UniProtKB/TrEMBL annotation:
Database matches in Pfam families: HGSNAT_cat
Keyword flag Transmembrane helix: yes
Keyword Protein transport among UniProt keywords: no
Domain named Heparan-alpha-glucosaminide N-acetyltransferase catalytic: residues: 58-188
Transmembrane portions of the chain: 59-76, 96-116, 136-156, 168-186, 206-224, 311-332, 344-365, 371-393, 413-433
Name of this chain's protein: (rape) hypothetical protein
Matches recorded under PANTHER family: LD22376P
InterPro entries referenced in this protein's UniProt entry, alphabetically: HGSNAT_cat (IPR012429)
Keyword line: Membrane, Transmembrane, Transmembrane helix
Amino acid sequence: MNEDRFGFSLMRTELAMYEPIKSTDEGDQWREKKDIESASSLQISSHHRPYLPSDKERLVSLDVFRGLTVALMILVDDVGGIFPAINHSPWDGVTLADFVMPFFLFIVGVSLAFAYKNLSCKYAATRKALLRSFKLLSLGLFLQGGFIHGLNNLTYGIDIEKIRVMGILQRIAIAYLVAALCEIWFKGNHNVTSELSMIKKYKFHWVVAFVITTTYLFMLYGLYVPDWEYQISTQDQGSTTFLVKCGVRGNTGPGCNAVGMLDRMLLGIHHLYRKPVYARTKQCSIYSPHNGPLPPGAPSWCQAPFDPEGLLSSLMATVTCLVGLHYGHIITHFKDHKRRLNQWILRSFCLLMLGLALDLFGMHLNKPLYTLSYVCVTAGASGFLFSTIYLMVDVYGYKRASLVLQWMGIHALPIYVLVACNLVFLIIHGFYWKKPTNNLVSFTYFSFVLR
């Protein structure tokens, strides 16, 4: 599976994250007011389930944002190899592709504010959150664990000793579960009448975010990374062992960081992603920022496995989801468009400035490590983009122009599975004439792409 496919976000209705509810005032649904979330117009499902507004009450801008992110995901994955400016950054720094994952996590957080707004049974909601996380983890293992071998190989199956444990959907499952449990159990009983009262109501959410961030920073900069080694198997020479000399603390380079060390220790080096993004750095490729042969004197870590969706970085990714949850709370507690937009823009600006300041003082933007500066900048960008889409779609009513993106957002999960993960192409590729190369996919490619 291609690592650049970020679909995940995908925690949507297809996995039954949300349950539709009934409005107490059908006449108020999507009228001239265009206000999306009126707390008085919603009531809890009789089945004690978490809910989201029904289709007529959907926050259209959130679907459009999700659809735009899906489209962006497909674009950067298919074209990023040609245009490095939109491909993933080889290490430090961010490009267009590096915003896709945070966008999805932010969207999941916003959605959770609706899903668990009112609960009649916290234990039932917890069970459902655990089940949905397990479903995402299982789907992620199937799609990205190595079971499916890709477009050029019609075989399938994976050695359990080499299956990739973490991945995109697994990261979303972790972030969703942490944010959902916070929303279910760590929500105060305060009546929200102002921004300050909203902060008091959800103060334990910020405590959780602070603890996660502090733990991450302590491990990233405090853990000692010893020397380590890995093997590469070749048909001609058998196995070659490479020694990576570290013996450092607080290093954020590709070979000697604590994020990779923890994954090697806890998951095992054979269960990590085998095509690391840092293989496109200048130290590891003569064609950088593209993949290419190793240059003379290349570091020993250039071919080492490294998982960009590892354990410690996925823990930090939950903070992005919690930020999105906070933006969702602003919708559920405040009805006025101007008030919502002012709060979103202020918070987005503060996050963006904080992230840029951290980068300036040495904590560089880095997606594989999911650094704090990266969290702040991408969360701020998510807030600004969501505010813009909300203003255009839900305030000014430009919904017709965004119907395609809205449809993509509503059907994000099947699009990810069928298109982003190449499953539909694999199925078509499986029907061929006399030999596997004579198939519809190859015919289309050679007829139209290479003409």
